[in-house]
Write a structure and sequence with these properties.
By secondary structure, the chain is α/β, with parallel strands linked by helices. The chain has two domains: 9-301, tm_1862 like domain (pyruvate-formate lyase- activating enzyme, Alpha-Beta Horseshoe); 349-426. Helix content is 39%, strand content 19%. The protein has 16 helices and 15 strands. The strands form three sheets. It has a nine-stranded mixed β-sheet, sandwiched between helices. It has a four-stranded antiparallel β-sheet with strand order 1-13-12-11, with no helix packed on it. Strands 14-15 form a two-stranded antiparallel ribbon. Helix 3 links the parallel strand 3 and strand 4 (128-138). The longest helix has 18 residues, at 72-89. The chain is globular and about 60 Å long.
């Protein structure tokens, strides 16, 4: 979740949604294709701010009334109460949560009992579907066997560890504080608690050789996680890393190097039984069932509905996108005075929503339905010509296209931005 908030219109203090949102939810349910509902909880606290991170995070333990680690569970629980009432006032039909995701920051810097308490409040006000996926992110050095058992007993089903690298000098460049040997211990504790495990990796750090990256991939695979995410390092403006690159004291990332590392990861992951389902995500799936895919993230990519709780958190509700006050103190103050934590919102027009569908759909192994391209001004005629051309260029899967879906090939995954530009016509 980037730290900078977008431009938009002011959000109403009572959190009320336009009638169009309620109508869309009702129509989807009536059609037999109901919109799913999820919850994201942002926990902004970190022990150390990593040099590459541009998320809305803070290293101080106390950022003001209602914005300390000690009071945070109560503050977020208050937002959940407000959310439930705002949805009811707006006539949006009740829906239970299918996924919950605690991100950050480092959610596990809060006591496990606080995370369980927030989840319990979400269960009380919204309800959880049977078999709901409940995930928390964690640094390997921010958990214990006891805390993970407490999370599992409290309803969590999944933990996503920020492993990033297994090579000490790469971790040092990234300002990561955990030692590589912490990861196997944390994974073992999670397994003993009955939690599914995902590992997050970063490739393309300056100074990381291809051999270094292979060490990381093989170390991750040796732990046999249920899920793997591998992200290329992006140098963002406003970060310590970005400033160092601008001053010339730190090398920038190399796109060709990152492409080589992506190809290596895909090969090793596939050989180990992991299937890609989104450009940066693989699930342990030798049978092709998709059982270990991150359902919460799939909801994002499929344009479903979610409420984002916490400072700076973003939400989407049936065509309305909105976001909370960025600073934890400002966020907490709004809730304390009985008004919505949300400070801005927008309703993207048809052109913007078309672009979103294309951008998200072509990242998935399930692909973008060709029928979605009919939303283009020309009814998708130009995009269909581009599909034919890109099949010939080896960027799109021809068999998938014949079945009515736009799916990138391995080469196409490396050139995803170009595919989007060509399909969307810009």
């Amino acid at each position: 979740m980037p730290a900078t908030l977008p431009l938009g219109n002011p959000a109403p203090d009572d959190g009320r949604f336009p009638e169009s949102a309620a109508r869309l939810v009702r129509e989807a349910a009536d059609s037999g294709r109901p919109r799913t509902f999820s919850l994201y909880v942002h926990v902004p606290f970190c022990e150390v701010r990593c040099g590459y991170c541009d998320f809305n995070t803070y290293t101080a333990e106390d950022l003001g009334p209602g914005a300390s680690r000690a009071s945070y569970a109560d503050t977020v629980s208050g937002e959940l109460d407000f959310a439930a009432e705002a949805l009811r006032r707006s006539g949006i039909p009740d829906r239970t949560l299918e996924t919950v995701f605690f991100g950050g920051g480092t959610p596990t810097l809060l006591p496990a009992s606080d995370l369980v308490r927030i989840l319990g409040r979400a269960r009380d006000v919204f309800g959880l579907t049977e078999g709901a996926e409940v995930t928390t992110e964690a640094n390997p050095d921010s958990v214990s066997a006891e805390s993970l058992r407490e999370l599992a007993a409290g309803g969590f089903t999944r933990v996503s560890f920020g492993m990033q690298s297994a090579v000490p000098h790469v971790l040092a460049t990234l300002d990561r504080t955990h030692r590589p040997e912490n990861v196997p211990a944390a994974v073992g504790w999670a397994r003993e608690a009955g939690l599914e495990v995902s590992l997050d990796l970063i490739y393309g750090t300056p100074g990381e050789s291809l051999a270094d990256w292979q060490v990381t991939v093989e170390a991750a695979l040796a732990l046999r996680p249920d899920h793997l995410s591998a992200y290329s390092l992006i140098v963002e403006d406003g970060t310590k890393f970005g400033a160092a690159v601008k001053r010339g004291v730190q090398d920038d990332v190399d796109p060709d190097d990152q492409a080589d590392k992506y190809l290596l990861a895909e090969r090793l992951f596939a050989e180990a039984g992991y299937r890609w389902y989104e450009i940066s995500n693989w699930a342990l799936d030798p049978e092709g069932s998709g059982v270990h895919r991150a359902r919460h993230n799939v909801a994002y990519w499929r344009d479903q509905d979610w409420w984002g709780a916490g400072p700076g958190a973003h939400s989407h509700m049936a065509g309305v996108r909105f976001w909370n006050a960025k600073h934890p103190a400002a966020y907490a103050q709004r809730l304390a005075t009985g008004v919505s934590a949300s400070v801005g919102r927008e309703e993207p027009d048809a052109e913007a929503r078309f672009l979103e569908r294309v951008m998200l759909g072509v990242r998935l192994s399930d692909g973008l339905p060709v029928t979605e391209l009919e939303a283009a001004a020309d009814g998708g005629a130009r995009a269909r010509q581009e599909i034919a051309a890109m099949i010939g260029e080896g960027l799109l899967d021809g068999r998938a296209a014949l079945a009515g879906r736009v799916v990138p090939t391995l080469q196409g995954r490396l050139l995803d931005d170009a595919i989007v530009r060509r399909l969307a016509g810009f």
